[in-house]
Amino acid sequence: MAIQSPSIDLGSGVAINAVAATASRGYWQSVRRRLRRDPVTLVCAGILLLIVLGAIFAPFLNLADPYKTSMIRRLYPLGSPNFPLGTDELGRDMFSRLIYGGRLSLFMGVTPVVCALLIGGTLGITAGFLGGWVNMLIMRVMDVFYAFPSVLLAISLSGAMGAGASNTLLALTLVFIPPVCRVSESVTTQVRGFDFVDAAKASGAGSFTIVRVHVLGNVLGPILVYATSLISVAIILAAGLSFLGLGVKPPEPEWGLMLNTLRQAIYVNPVLAALPGVMIFITSIFFNLMSDGLRAAMDVKA
Amino acid sequence: MLLYALRRLIYLIPVAFGVSLLVFALVHLAPGDAISAIVPPDAPQELIDKLKEYYGFDKPLPVQYFRWLGVTLTGDFGTSIGTGRPVADEVGSAFGNTIILAISATFCAFTLAIILGTAAAYAKTRIVDRLVTSIALVGVSVPHFWLAIVLVIIFSVELGMLPPMGLGPENATGWRLDWPHVQHMILPTIALSVIPLGVMTRTVRSTVKEVLSSEFVTALQAKGMRDGAILRHVMKNAAPTCLAVMGLQAGNLIGGSILIETVFSWPGTGFLLNSAIFRRDLPILQGTTLVLAGFFMLLNLTVDVIQTMVDPRIKRG
Questions:
Q1: CA B308, B313, B317: angle at the middle one, nearest 5?
Q2: Neighboring chain A residues of B289 at a CB cutoff of 8 Å
Protein backbone atom coordinates (compact mmCIF):
# COMPACT_ATOMS: atom_id res chain seq x y z
CA MET A 1 0.00 0.00 0.00
CA ALA A 2 3.03 2.16 -0.28
CA ILE A 3 2.82 5.17 -2.46
CA GLN A 4 5.72 4.81 -4.79
CA SER A 5 8.15 7.66 -4.94
CA PRO A 6 6.74 9.95 -7.57
CA SER A 7 9.86 10.67 -9.54
CA ILE A 8 8.60 10.93 -13.05
CA ASP A 9 11.22 11.60 -15.64
CA LEU A 10 9.55 13.02 -18.65
CA GLY A 11 12.46 12.58 -21.00
CA SER A 12 11.23 11.50 -24.36
CA GLY A 13 7.63 11.69 -23.20
CA VAL A 14 7.65 15.44 -23.15
CA ALA A 15 9.35 15.67 -26.48
CA ILE A 16 6.42 13.80 -27.93
CA ASN A 17 3.95 15.77 -25.88
CA ALA A 18 5.61 19.00 -26.94
CA VAL A 19 4.71 18.23 -30.50
CA ALA A 20 1.26 17.43 -29.25
CA ALA A 21 0.74 21.00 -28.12
CA THR A 22 0.54 22.11 -31.73
CA ALA A 23 -1.23 19.05 -33.07
CA SER A 24 -2.90 17.67 -29.97
CA ARG A 25 -5.38 15.51 -31.86
CA GLY A 26 -2.50 13.54 -33.33
CA TYR A 27 -1.12 12.65 -29.93
CA TRP A 28 -4.38 11.46 -28.43
CA GLN A 29 -5.18 9.58 -31.60
CA SER A 30 -1.92 7.68 -31.37
CA VAL A 31 -2.60 6.96 -27.70
CA ARG A 32 -5.97 5.52 -28.66
CA ARG A 33 -4.39 3.46 -31.42
CA ARG A 34 -1.77 2.06 -29.07
CA LEU A 35 -4.44 1.23 -26.50
CA ARG A 36 -6.49 -0.60 -29.09
CA ARG A 37 -3.50 -2.79 -29.88
CA ASP A 38 -2.97 -3.70 -26.21
CA PRO A 39 -5.28 -6.63 -25.42
CA VAL A 40 -4.21 -6.91 -21.76
CA THR A 41 -5.20 -3.34 -20.97
CA LEU A 42 -8.47 -3.69 -22.87
CA VAL A 43 -9.42 -6.87 -21.02
CA CYS A 44 -8.56 -5.24 -17.68
CA ALA A 45 -10.62 -2.20 -18.55
CA GLY A 46 -13.48 -4.50 -19.54
CA ILE A 47 -13.44 -6.44 -16.26
CA LEU A 48 -13.18 -3.22 -14.26
CA LEU A 49 -16.09 -1.82 -16.19
CA LEU A 50 -18.09 -4.93 -15.27
CA ILE A 51 -17.32 -4.48 -11.56
CA VAL A 52 -18.12 -0.77 -11.72
CA LEU A 53 -21.34 -1.26 -13.67
CA GLY A 54 -22.37 -4.05 -11.30
CA ALA A 55 -21.82 -1.73 -8.37
CA ILE A 56 -23.70 1.18 -9.95
CA PHE A 57 -26.67 -0.83 -11.18
CA ALA A 58 -26.79 -3.23 -8.22
CA PRO A 59 -30.31 -2.15 -7.21
CA PHE A 60 -31.62 -3.07 -10.66
CA LEU A 61 -29.96 -6.48 -10.86
CA ASN A 62 -32.71 -8.27 -8.96
CA LEU A 63 -30.27 -9.36 -6.24
CA ALA A 64 -31.20 -10.49 -2.76
CA ASP A 65 -31.50 -7.73 -0.17
CA PRO A 66 -27.94 -7.20 1.11
CA TYR A 67 -29.21 -6.00 4.50
CA LYS A 68 -31.71 -8.76 5.20
CA THR A 69 -30.41 -10.82 8.12
CA SER A 70 -31.55 -14.24 9.21
CA MET A 71 -30.58 -16.07 12.36
CA ILE A 72 -31.34 -19.47 10.84
CA ARG A 73 -29.20 -19.38 7.70
CA ARG A 74 -25.92 -18.03 9.03
CA LEU A 75 -22.60 -18.85 7.33
CA TYR A 76 -23.96 -21.06 4.59
CA PRO A 77 -21.09 -22.44 2.52
CA LEU A 78 -20.46 -21.54 -1.11
CA GLY A 79 -22.80 -23.15 -3.61
CA SER A 80 -25.80 -23.40 -1.32
CA PRO A 81 -29.14 -23.34 -3.12
CA ASN A 82 -30.36 -19.74 -3.54
CA PHE A 83 -27.07 -18.45 -2.09
CA PRO A 84 -24.39 -19.03 -4.74
CA LEU A 85 -21.64 -17.53 -2.55
CA GLY A 86 -23.15 -18.51 0.77
CA THR A 87 -24.29 -16.24 3.58
CA ASP A 88 -22.35 -14.11 6.06
CA GLU A 89 -22.26 -14.19 9.86
CA LEU A 90 -25.70 -12.57 10.05
CA GLY A 91 -27.27 -14.66 7.34
CA ARG A 92 -27.08 -12.03 4.62
CA ASP A 93 -26.58 -13.07 1.01
CA MET A 94 -22.84 -12.90 0.23
CA PHE A 95 -23.14 -12.57 -3.54
CA SER A 96 -25.44 -9.61 -3.21
CA ARG A 97 -23.26 -8.02 -0.55
CA LEU A 98 -20.11 -8.44 -2.64
CA ILE A 99 -21.75 -6.73 -5.63
CA TYR A 100 -23.24 -4.00 -3.45
CA GLY A 101 -19.92 -3.74 -1.60
CA GLY A 102 -18.32 -2.45 -4.78
CA ARG A 103 -20.40 0.72 -4.48
CA LEU A 104 -18.78 1.93 -1.28
CA SER A 105 -15.38 0.32 -1.81
CA LEU A 106 -14.90 1.84 -5.25
CA PHE A 107 -16.36 5.16 -4.19
CA MET A 108 -14.07 5.33 -1.14
CA GLY A 109 -11.07 4.48 -3.30
CA VAL A 110 -11.69 6.67 -6.32
CA THR A 111 -13.08 9.83 -4.68
CA PRO A 112 -9.96 10.69 -2.64
CA VAL A 113 -7.77 10.27 -5.71
CA VAL A 114 -10.04 12.54 -7.79
CA CYS A 115 -10.09 15.17 -5.02
CA ALA A 116 -6.34 14.88 -4.56
CA LEU A 117 -5.89 15.17 -8.31
CA LEU A 118 -7.86 18.43 -8.37
CA ILE A 119 -6.30 19.97 -5.27
CA GLY A 120 -2.79 18.51 -5.50
CA GLY A 121 -2.67 19.05 -9.25
CA THR A 122 -3.65 22.70 -8.94
CA LEU A 123 -1.16 23.27 -6.12
CA GLY A 124 1.63 21.46 -7.96
CA ILE A 125 1.09 23.21 -11.28
CA THR A 126 0.92 26.57 -9.49
CA ALA A 127 4.13 25.82 -7.60
CA GLY A 128 5.89 24.59 -10.71
CA PHE A 129 4.76 27.43 -12.95
CA LEU A 130 5.29 30.32 -10.56
CA GLY A 131 8.45 28.97 -8.93
CA GLY A 132 10.16 31.20 -6.37
CA TRP A 133 8.72 31.61 -2.90
CA VAL A 134 5.30 30.23 -3.87
CA ASN A 135 6.99 26.99 -4.88
CA MET A 136 9.04 27.04 -1.66
CA LEU A 137 5.97 27.51 0.49
CA ILE A 138 3.80 24.87 -1.17
CA MET A 139 6.48 22.24 -1.45
CA ARG A 140 7.75 22.68 2.12
CA VAL A 141 4.23 22.17 3.43
CA MET A 142 4.06 18.98 1.34
CA ASP A 143 7.38 17.87 2.88
CA VAL A 144 5.68 17.85 6.28
CA PHE A 145 3.10 15.34 5.03
CA TYR A 146 5.90 13.34 3.44
CA ALA A 147 7.47 12.89 6.85
CA PHE A 148 4.72 10.35 7.65
CA PRO A 149 4.43 6.88 6.18
CA SER A 150 1.18 7.13 4.18
CA VAL A 151 -0.70 4.41 6.07
CA LEU A 152 0.24 5.94 9.41
CA LEU A 153 -1.00 9.36 8.29
CA ALA A 154 -4.30 7.92 7.07
CA ILE A 155 -4.88 5.92 10.25
CA SER A 156 -3.84 8.69 12.64
CA LEU A 157 -6.00 11.27 10.89
CA SER A 158 -9.12 9.16 10.64
CA GLY A 159 -8.45 7.75 14.10
CA ALA A 160 -8.39 11.23 15.57
CA MET A 161 -11.43 12.43 13.62
CA GLY A 162 -13.40 9.29 14.47
CA ALA A 163 -14.88 6.51 12.37
CA GLY A 164 -17.15 7.28 9.44
CA ALA A 165 -17.08 7.35 5.67
CA SER A 166 -16.71 11.13 5.31
CA ASN A 167 -13.75 11.26 7.72
CA THR A 168 -12.07 8.45 5.83
CA LEU A 169 -12.53 10.32 2.55
CA LEU A 170 -11.04 13.44 4.09
CA ALA A 171 -8.08 11.58 5.58
CA LEU A 172 -7.33 9.73 2.34
CA THR A 173 -7.56 12.92 0.28
CA LEU A 174 -5.02 14.52 2.60
CA VAL A 175 -2.76 11.50 2.17
CA PHE A 176 -2.84 11.65 -1.62
CA ILE A 177 -2.50 15.41 -2.15
CA PRO A 178 1.27 15.54 -1.47
CA PRO A 179 2.37 12.84 -3.96
CA VAL A 180 0.11 14.26 -6.71
CA CYS A 181 1.41 17.72 -5.91
CA ARG A 182 5.03 16.59 -6.13
CA VAL A 183 4.56 14.91 -9.48
CA SER A 184 2.64 17.88 -10.87
CA GLU A 185 5.29 20.27 -9.65
CA SER A 186 8.21 18.37 -11.12
CA VAL A 187 6.46 17.85 -14.47
CA THR A 188 5.41 21.51 -14.67
CA THR A 189 8.89 22.71 -13.80
CA GLN A 190 10.27 20.61 -16.65
CA VAL A 191 7.70 21.87 -19.15
CA ARG A 192 8.23 25.47 -18.10
CA GLY A 193 11.84 25.22 -19.21
CA PHE A 194 10.97 24.30 -22.79
CA ASP A 195 11.46 26.78 -25.60
CA PHE A 196 7.84 26.84 -26.66
CA VAL A 197 6.87 28.40 -23.33
CA ASP A 198 9.42 31.15 -23.87
CA ALA A 199 8.15 31.54 -27.42
CA ALA A 200 4.59 31.94 -26.19
CA LYS A 201 5.72 34.47 -23.63
CA ALA A 202 7.67 36.39 -26.25
CA SER A 203 4.67 36.50 -28.55
CA GLY A 204 2.68 38.16 -25.80
CA ALA A 205 0.62 35.35 -24.31
CA GLY A 206 -0.59 35.97 -20.77
CA SER A 207 0.29 33.63 -17.92
CA PHE A 208 -3.21 32.17 -17.86
CA THR A 209 -3.14 31.36 -21.57
CA ILE A 210 0.30 29.79 -21.28
CA VAL A 211 -0.83 27.56 -18.42
CA ARG A 212 -4.06 26.62 -20.15
CA VAL A 213 -2.69 25.94 -23.60
CA HIS A 214 0.96 25.01 -23.23
CA VAL A 215 1.43 23.74 -19.70
CA LEU A 216 -1.81 21.89 -19.07
CA GLY A 217 -1.71 20.18 -22.45
CA ASN A 218 1.70 18.77 -21.63
CA VAL A 219 1.46 17.92 -17.96
CA LEU A 220 -2.04 16.50 -17.74
CA GLY A 221 -1.08 13.18 -19.31
CA PRO A 222 1.69 12.24 -16.87
CA ILE A 223 -0.31 13.52 -13.88
CA LEU A 224 -3.36 11.49 -14.90
CA VAL A 225 -1.30 8.36 -15.40
CA TYR A 226 0.23 8.82 -11.97
CA ALA A 227 -3.21 9.34 -10.44
CA THR A 228 -4.55 6.13 -11.97
CA SER A 229 -1.68 4.26 -10.34
CA LEU A 230 -2.82 5.66 -6.99
CA ILE A 231 -6.36 4.29 -7.29
CA SER A 232 -5.39 0.74 -6.38
CA VAL A 233 -3.43 2.03 -3.38
CA ALA A 234 -6.44 4.11 -2.36
CA ILE A 235 -8.87 1.20 -2.66
CA ILE A 236 -6.66 -1.01 -0.48
CA LEU A 237 -6.09 1.79 2.04
CA ALA A 238 -9.80 2.64 2.25
CA ALA A 239 -10.65 -1.03 2.71
CA GLY A 240 -7.88 -1.25 5.32
CA LEU A 241 -9.36 1.63 7.31
CA SER A 242 -12.79 0.00 7.22
CA PHE A 243 -11.15 -3.27 8.21
CA LEU A 244 -9.76 -1.56 11.31
CA GLY A 245 -13.24 -0.22 12.04
CA LEU A 246 -12.25 3.35 11.12
CA GLY A 247 -14.12 3.68 7.87
CA VAL A 248 -17.59 2.65 6.81
CA LYS A 249 -19.81 1.56 9.68
CA PRO A 250 -21.89 -1.62 9.79
CA PRO A 251 -24.29 -2.78 8.43
CA GLU A 252 -23.19 -1.17 5.15
CA PRO A 253 -21.74 -3.66 2.68
CA GLU A 254 -18.11 -2.72 2.12
CA TRP A 255 -15.32 -5.16 1.28
CA GLY A 256 -12.90 -4.10 4.03
CA LEU A 257 -15.58 -4.06 6.70
CA MET A 258 -16.96 -7.42 5.53
CA LEU A 259 -13.48 -8.88 5.83
CA ASN A 260 -13.38 -7.62 9.39
CA THR A 261 -16.78 -8.89 10.51
CA LEU A 262 -16.19 -12.28 8.85
CA ARG A 263 -12.92 -12.79 10.72
CA GLN A 264 -14.72 -14.64 13.48
CA ALA A 265 -15.87 -17.14 10.86
CA ILE A 266 -12.42 -18.31 9.73
CA TYR A 267 -12.72 -21.49 11.80
CA VAL A 268 -16.22 -22.27 10.53
CA ASN A 269 -16.14 -21.30 6.89
CA PRO A 270 -12.67 -20.09 5.87
CA VAL A 271 -13.29 -19.71 2.14
CA LEU A 272 -16.28 -17.49 2.78
CA ALA A 273 -14.27 -15.36 5.21
CA ALA A 274 -11.66 -14.67 2.55
CA LEU A 275 -14.08 -13.73 -0.24
CA PRO A 276 -14.33 -9.94 0.28
CA GLY A 277 -10.54 -9.72 0.07
CA VAL A 278 -10.63 -11.47 -3.30
CA MET A 279 -12.79 -8.62 -4.58
CA ILE A 280 -10.33 -6.02 -3.27
CA PHE A 281 -7.43 -7.94 -4.78
CA ILE A 282 -9.06 -8.35 -8.21
CA THR A 283 -10.09 -4.70 -8.40
CA SER A 284 -6.68 -3.45 -7.34
CA ILE A 285 -4.72 -5.74 -9.67
CA PHE A 286 -6.82 -4.71 -12.68
CA PHE A 287 -6.47 -1.03 -11.82
CA ASN A 288 -2.71 -1.51 -11.67
CA LEU A 289 -2.60 -3.35 -15.00
CA MET A 290 -4.75 -0.68 -16.61
CA SER A 291 -2.55 2.05 -15.21
CA ASP A 292 0.55 0.31 -16.62
CA GLY A 293 -1.15 0.01 -19.99
CA LEU A 294 -2.11 3.68 -19.98
CA ARG A 295 1.44 4.62 -19.05
CA ALA A 296 2.78 2.66 -21.99
CA ALA A 297 0.17 4.02 -24.40
CA MET A 298 0.78 7.60 -23.32
CA ASP A 299 4.51 7.06 -23.41
CA VAL A 300 5.18 8.41 -19.92
CA LYS A 301 8.41 7.18 -18.42
CA ALA A 302 8.01 6.13 -14.81
CA MET B 1 30.21 14.23 3.62
CA LEU B 2 29.73 15.21 7.23
CA LEU B 3 28.82 18.69 6.07
CA TYR B 4 26.18 17.29 3.78
CA ALA B 5 24.69 15.19 6.58
CA LEU B 6 24.68 18.22 8.82
CA ARG B 7 23.01 20.39 6.20
CA ARG B 8 20.32 17.78 5.69
CA LEU B 9 19.80 17.61 9.44
CA ILE B 10 19.32 21.38 9.65
CA TYR B 11 16.92 21.25 6.74
CA LEU B 12 14.92 18.71 8.72
CA ILE B 13 14.18 21.21 11.50
CA PRO B 14 11.37 23.14 9.77
CA VAL B 15 9.87 19.85 8.59
CA ALA B 16 10.02 18.46 12.12
CA PHE B 17 8.34 21.63 13.35
CA GLY B 18 5.54 21.13 10.84
CA VAL B 19 5.23 17.49 11.86
CA SER B 20 4.89 18.44 15.52
CA LEU B 21 2.17 20.95 14.62
CA LEU B 22 0.27 18.30 12.71
CA VAL B 23 0.60 15.74 15.50
CA PHE B 24 -0.53 18.34 18.02
CA ALA B 25 -3.50 19.15 15.79
CA LEU B 26 -4.56 15.48 15.87
CA VAL B 27 -6.00 15.97 19.34
CA HIS B 28 -8.00 18.96 18.24
CA LEU B 29 -9.36 17.21 15.17
CA ALA B 30 -11.07 14.86 17.56
CA PRO B 31 -14.77 15.38 18.03
CA GLY B 32 -15.61 16.55 21.52
CA ASP B 33 -12.71 17.02 23.91
CA ALA B 34 -10.43 14.39 25.26
CA ILE B 35 -11.68 15.01 28.79
CA SER B 36 -15.19 13.84 28.03
CA ALA B 37 -13.73 10.53 26.93
CA ILE B 38 -12.25 9.71 30.33
CA VAL B 39 -14.75 11.04 32.85
CA PRO B 40 -18.18 9.52 33.32
CA PRO B 41 -21.03 11.69 32.03
CA ASP B 42 -22.29 12.41 35.55
CA ALA B 43 -18.90 13.61 36.85
CA PRO B 44 -19.04 16.82 38.88
CA GLN B 45 -17.88 19.98 37.11
CA GLU B 46 -15.12 20.39 39.71
CA LEU B 47 -13.49 17.13 38.73
CA ILE B 48 -13.69 18.00 35.04
CA ASP B 49 -12.07 21.39 35.65
CA LYS B 50 -9.37 19.80 37.76
CA LEU B 51 -8.56 17.25 35.09
CA LYS B 52 -8.65 19.93 32.39
CA GLU B 53 -6.10 21.91 34.32
CA TYR B 54 -4.01 18.81 34.93
CA TYR B 55 -3.85 17.99 31.23
CA GLY B 56 -3.59 21.69 30.28
CA PHE B 57 -6.74 21.74 28.19
CA ASP B 58 -7.93 25.03 29.73
CA LYS B 59 -5.22 27.18 28.10
CA PRO B 60 -5.44 28.85 24.64
CA LEU B 61 -4.21 26.68 21.75
CA PRO B 62 -0.81 28.32 21.02
CA VAL B 63 0.06 28.15 24.71
CA GLN B 64 -0.99 24.50 24.78
CA TYR B 65 1.11 23.79 21.71
CA PHE B 66 4.34 25.30 23.01
CA ARG B 67 3.80 23.79 26.43
CA TRP B 68 3.27 20.41 24.81
CA LEU B 69 6.27 20.86 22.49
CA GLY B 70 8.53 21.87 25.38
CA VAL B 71 7.54 18.89 27.48
CA THR B 72 7.71 16.52 24.53
CA LEU B 73 11.21 17.63 23.59
CA THR B 74 12.42 16.52 27.02
CA GLY B 75 11.19 13.03 26.16
CA ASP B 76 8.04 13.26 28.25
CA PHE B 77 5.10 12.26 26.05
CA GLY B 78 2.50 12.53 28.79
CA THR B 79 0.50 9.79 30.46
CA SER B 80 -1.84 7.38 28.81
CA ILE B 81 -5.45 8.22 29.60
CA GLY B 82 -6.31 4.53 29.37
CA THR B 83 -3.67 2.91 31.57
CA GLY B 84 -2.19 5.83 33.47
CA ARG B 85 1.33 4.70 32.50
CA PRO B 86 3.78 7.13 30.82
CA VAL B 87 3.24 7.21 27.06
CA ALA B 88 7.00 7.00 26.47
CA ASP B 89 7.13 3.61 28.25
CA GLU B 90 4.19 2.18 26.36
CA VAL B 91 5.41 3.38 22.98
CA GLY B 92 8.99 2.38 23.76
CA SER B 93 8.27 -1.27 24.44
CA ALA B 94 5.86 -1.52 21.51
CA PHE B 95 8.37 0.16 19.18
CA GLY B 96 10.93 -2.57 19.83
CA ASN B 97 8.45 -5.26 18.78
CA THR B 98 7.55 -3.35 15.63
CA ILE B 99 11.19 -2.94 14.70
CA ILE B 100 11.90 -6.67 15.12
CA LEU B 101 9.07 -7.50 12.75
CA ALA B 102 10.05 -4.72 10.36
CA ILE B 103 13.68 -5.84 10.19
CA SER B 104 12.80 -9.43 9.41
CA ALA B 105 10.24 -8.39 6.78
CA THR B 106 12.61 -5.85 5.22
CA PHE B 107 15.38 -8.42 5.07
CA CYS B 108 13.19 -11.05 3.40
CA ALA B 109 11.63 -8.63 0.95
CA PHE B 110 14.83 -6.92 -0.14
CA THR B 111 16.91 -10.08 -0.53
CA LEU B 112 14.25 -11.76 -2.60
CA ALA B 113 13.58 -8.59 -4.61
CA ILE B 114 17.25 -8.16 -5.52
CA ILE B 115 17.53 -11.77 -6.68
CA LEU B 116 14.25 -11.75 -8.62
CA GLY B 117 14.71 -8.28 -10.09
CA THR B 118 18.25 -8.97 -11.27
CA ALA B 119 17.23 -12.34 -12.69
CA ALA B 120 14.40 -10.70 -14.64
CA ALA B 121 16.67 -7.97 -15.98
CA TYR B 122 19.23 -10.56 -17.11
CA ALA B 123 16.62 -13.00 -18.38
CA LYS B 124 17.18 -14.16 -21.94
CA THR B 125 13.83 -15.92 -22.15
CA ARG B 126 10.63 -13.98 -21.83
CA ILE B 127 9.10 -16.45 -19.45
CA VAL B 128 11.41 -15.58 -16.52
CA ASP B 129 10.79 -11.89 -17.00
CA ARG B 130 7.03 -12.45 -17.26
CA LEU B 131 7.02 -14.58 -14.12
CA VAL B 132 8.96 -12.03 -12.09
CA THR B 133 6.86 -9.10 -13.32
CA SER B 134 3.73 -11.03 -12.37
CA ILE B 135 5.06 -11.67 -8.87
CA ALA B 136 5.83 -7.97 -8.57
CA LEU B 137 2.36 -7.02 -9.79
CA VAL B 138 0.71 -9.32 -7.25
CA GLY B 139 2.95 -7.85 -4.56
CA VAL B 140 1.86 -4.28 -5.20
CA SER B 141 -1.81 -5.17 -5.69
CA VAL B 142 -2.58 -7.57 -2.87
CA PRO B 143 -4.33 -6.13 0.19
CA HIS B 144 -1.78 -7.27 2.76
CA PHE B 145 -4.24 -7.52 5.64
CA TRP B 146 -6.29 -9.92 3.55
CA LEU B 147 -3.18 -11.94 2.75
CA ALA B 148 -2.54 -12.09 6.50
CA ILE B 149 -5.98 -13.62 7.05
CA VAL B 150 -5.50 -16.06 4.19
CA LEU B 151 -2.16 -17.13 5.68
CA VAL B 152 -3.81 -17.69 9.06
CA ILE B 153 -6.56 -19.72 7.38
CA ILE B 154 -4.08 -21.91 5.51
CA PHE B 155 -1.27 -22.38 8.01
CA SER B 156 -3.07 -22.09 11.33
CA VAL B 157 -6.67 -23.16 10.79
CA GLU B 158 -6.30 -25.78 8.07
CA LEU B 159 -2.78 -27.13 8.52
CA GLY B 160 -2.26 -26.23 12.16
CA MET B 161 1.41 -25.63 11.49
CA LEU B 162 1.95 -22.09 12.75
CA PRO B 163 0.41 -20.04 15.57
CA PRO B 164 -2.21 -17.53 14.39
CA MET B 165 -1.45 -14.70 16.79
CA GLY B 166 0.73 -13.24 19.48
CA LEU B 167 4.38 -12.49 20.01
CA GLY B 168 5.38 -15.84 21.46
CA PRO B 169 4.09 -18.69 23.56
CA GLU B 170 1.54 -17.88 26.25
CA ASN B 171 2.75 -15.74 29.16
CA ALA B 172 5.73 -14.64 27.10
CA THR B 173 6.87 -11.24 28.31
CA GLY B 174 9.20 -10.10 25.59
CA TRP B 175 10.77 -11.19 22.36
CA ARG B 176 13.63 -13.69 22.38
CA LEU B 177 15.52 -15.39 19.60
CA ASP B 178 14.32 -18.97 19.92
CA TRP B 179 12.09 -21.25 17.86
CA PRO B 180 8.76 -20.65 19.70
CA HIS B 181 9.17 -16.92 19.18
CA VAL B 182 10.45 -17.15 15.62
CA GLN B 183 7.51 -19.43 14.82
CA HIS B 184 5.14 -16.61 15.73
CA MET B 185 6.99 -14.25 13.41
CA ILE B 186 6.78 -16.26 10.21
CA LEU B 187 3.26 -15.39 9.10
CA PRO B 188 3.39 -11.66 9.99
CA THR B 189 6.75 -11.40 8.24
CA ILE B 190 5.39 -12.90 5.02
CA ALA B 191 2.28 -10.69 5.09
CA LEU B 192 4.33 -7.59 5.78
CA SER B 193 6.94 -8.21 3.12
CA VAL B 194 4.68 -8.59 0.06
CA ILE B 195 4.32 -4.87 -0.71
CA PRO B 196 8.01 -3.96 -0.43
CA LEU B 197 8.80 -7.15 -2.34
CA GLY B 198 6.57 -6.06 -5.21
CA VAL B 199 7.77 -2.48 -5.33
CA MET B 200 11.46 -3.38 -4.94
CA THR B 201 11.36 -6.14 -7.55
CA ARG B 202 9.95 -3.64 -10.04
CA THR B 203 12.58 -1.07 -9.12
CA VAL B 204 15.53 -3.47 -9.20
CA ARG B 205 14.40 -4.94 -12.51
CA SER B 206 14.00 -1.61 -14.29
CA THR B 207 17.16 -0.09 -12.81
CA VAL B 208 19.39 -3.07 -13.61
CA LYS B 209 17.90 -3.24 -17.08
CA GLU B 210 18.70 0.41 -17.64
CA VAL B 211 22.28 0.02 -16.41
CA LEU B 212 22.72 -3.09 -18.56
CA SER B 213 21.82 -1.11 -21.67
CA SER B 214 24.37 1.61 -20.98
CA GLU B 215 27.54 1.84 -23.05
CA PHE B 216 30.05 1.03 -20.36
CA VAL B 217 28.63 -2.48 -20.05
CA THR B 218 29.16 -3.06 -23.76
CA ALA B 219 32.68 -1.71 -23.38
CA LEU B 220 33.42 -4.09 -20.51
CA GLN B 221 32.05 -7.00 -22.51
CA ALA B 222 34.15 -6.00 -25.51
CA LYS B 223 37.17 -5.84 -23.26
CA GLY B 224 36.52 -9.47 -22.39
CA MET B 225 35.57 -9.05 -18.75
CA ARG B 226 33.84 -12.04 -17.24
CA ASP B 227 30.09 -11.81 -16.53
CA GLY B 228 30.54 -12.07 -12.77
CA ALA B 229 32.84 -9.07 -12.71
CA ILE B 230 30.50 -7.09 -14.95
CA LEU B 231 27.63 -7.87 -12.57
CA ARG B 232 29.60 -6.15 -9.81
CA HIS B 233 29.85 -2.99 -11.91
CA VAL B 234 26.18 -3.16 -12.78
CA MET B 235 25.17 -3.58 -9.15
CA LYS B 236 27.27 -0.65 -8.09
CA ASN B 237 25.57 1.58 -10.63
CA ALA B 238 22.08 0.36 -9.83
CA ALA B 239 22.57 0.70 -6.07
CA PRO B 240 21.79 4.43 -5.54
CA THR B 241 18.34 4.35 -7.18
CA CYS B 242 17.43 1.09 -5.47
CA LEU B 243 18.65 2.40 -2.11
CA ALA B 244 16.40 5.45 -2.37
CA VAL B 245 13.33 3.33 -2.97
CA MET B 246 14.40 0.86 -0.28
CA GLY B 247 14.52 3.60 2.33
CA LEU B 248 11.03 4.74 1.47
CA GLN B 249 9.75 1.17 1.47
CA ALA B 250 11.33 0.32 4.81
CA GLY B 251 9.59 3.34 6.29
CA ASN B 252 6.26 2.59 4.68
CA LEU B 253 6.50 -0.93 5.99
CA ILE B 254 6.36 0.47 9.50
CA GLY B 255 3.11 2.19 8.59
CA GLY B 256 1.78 -0.91 6.85
CA SER B 257 2.51 -3.01 9.89
CA ILE B 258 -0.36 -1.30 11.73
CA LEU B 259 -2.84 -3.53 9.90
CA ILE B 260 -0.69 -6.65 10.12
CA GLU B 261 -0.07 -6.21 13.83
CA THR B 262 -3.82 -5.90 14.34
CA VAL B 263 -4.52 -9.15 12.49
CA PHE B 264 -1.84 -11.07 14.39
CA SER B 265 -2.26 -9.27 17.74
CA TRP B 266 1.46 -8.49 17.56
CA PRO B 267 2.12 -6.11 20.47
CA GLY B 268 3.83 -3.40 18.45
CA THR B 269 3.16 0.28 17.80
CA GLY B 270 0.45 -0.47 15.25
CA PHE B 271 -1.47 -2.60 17.70
CA LEU B 272 -0.99 0.08 20.34
CA LEU B 273 -2.15 2.83 17.98
CA ASN B 274 -5.22 0.87 16.96
CA SER B 275 -6.28 0.12 20.51
CA ALA B 276 -5.56 3.73 21.51
CA ILE B 277 -7.93 4.92 18.78
CA PHE B 278 -10.74 2.78 20.11
CA ARG B 279 -10.16 3.74 23.72
CA ARG B 280 -9.87 7.36 22.54
CA ASP B 281 -6.52 7.50 24.29
CA LEU B 282 -5.25 10.62 22.52
CA PRO B 283 -1.86 10.95 24.27
CA ILE B 284 -0.96 7.45 23.06
CA LEU B 285 -2.21 8.28 19.56
CA GLN B 286 -0.07 11.43 19.55
CA GLY B 287 3.00 9.75 21.02
CA THR B 288 2.95 6.79 18.66
CA THR B 289 2.40 8.96 15.59
CA LEU B 290 5.20 11.30 16.63
CA VAL B 291 7.70 8.51 17.31
CA LEU B 292 6.92 6.73 14.04
CA ALA B 293 7.10 9.94 11.99
CA GLY B 294 10.37 10.87 13.70
CA PHE B 295 11.79 7.46 12.93
CA PHE B 296 10.64 7.74 9.31
CA MET B 297 12.33 11.14 8.93
CA LEU B 298 15.62 9.90 10.38
CA LEU B 299 15.47 6.81 8.17
CA ASN B 300 15.01 8.95 5.06
CA LEU B 301 17.88 11.17 6.14
CA THR B 302 20.14 8.16 6.67
CA VAL B 303 19.26 6.72 3.27
CA ASP B 304 19.98 10.07 1.66
CA VAL B 305 23.40 10.26 3.26
CA ILE B 306 24.26 6.63 2.44
CA GLN B 307 23.19 7.28 -1.12
CA THR B 308 25.70 10.07 -1.56
CA MET B 309 28.34 7.86 0.02
CA VAL B 310 27.68 5.06 -2.47
CA ASP B 311 27.48 7.39 -5.43
CA PRO B 312 29.62 10.52 -5.07
CA ARG B 313 28.23 11.84 -8.35
CA ILE B 314 25.00 12.74 -6.59
CA LYS B 315 25.27 16.31 -5.47
CA ARG B 316 22.26 17.82 -3.84
CA GLY B 317 21.53 21.47 -3.40
A1: 70
A2: 148, 152, 156
Best CA proximity match to B231, nearest among B240, B242, B243, B221: B221
**pLDDT single digits (tens) B195-211:** 999 999 999 999 998 89
Rounded-to-integer distance, Cα A277 and Cα A258, Å: 9
Among candidates A292, A7, A113, which has minimal Cα distance to B140? Answer: A292
* pLDDT at res. A257: 92
- Look at residue B35 in the predicted model and tell me its pLDDT: 66
Q: Please give the residue that has the higher pLDDT: either A300 or A79.
A: A79
A300 Ramachandran zone, left/alpha/beta (phi>0; psi -120 to 50): beta
ipTM of the prediction: 0.86
Distance CA A241, CA A170 (A): 12
B23 neighbourhood in chain A, CB within 8 Å = 156
A2/B16 touch (CB, cutoff 8 Å), yes or no: no
Higher pLDDT, B235 or A7: B235
For residues B141 and A237, what is the distance between their CA atoms, to the nearest angstrom?
11
Are B15 and A280 inside 8 Å of each other by CB?
A: no
Chain A interface, mutation test: which of B133, B194, B277, most A Cβ atoms within 10 Å?
B277
Q: B272 CB contacts (<8 Å, ≥6 apart)?
A: B90, B91, B94, B284, B288
Is A159's Cβ below 8 Å from some Cβ in B? yes
Q: What is the pLDDT of residue B173?
A: 67
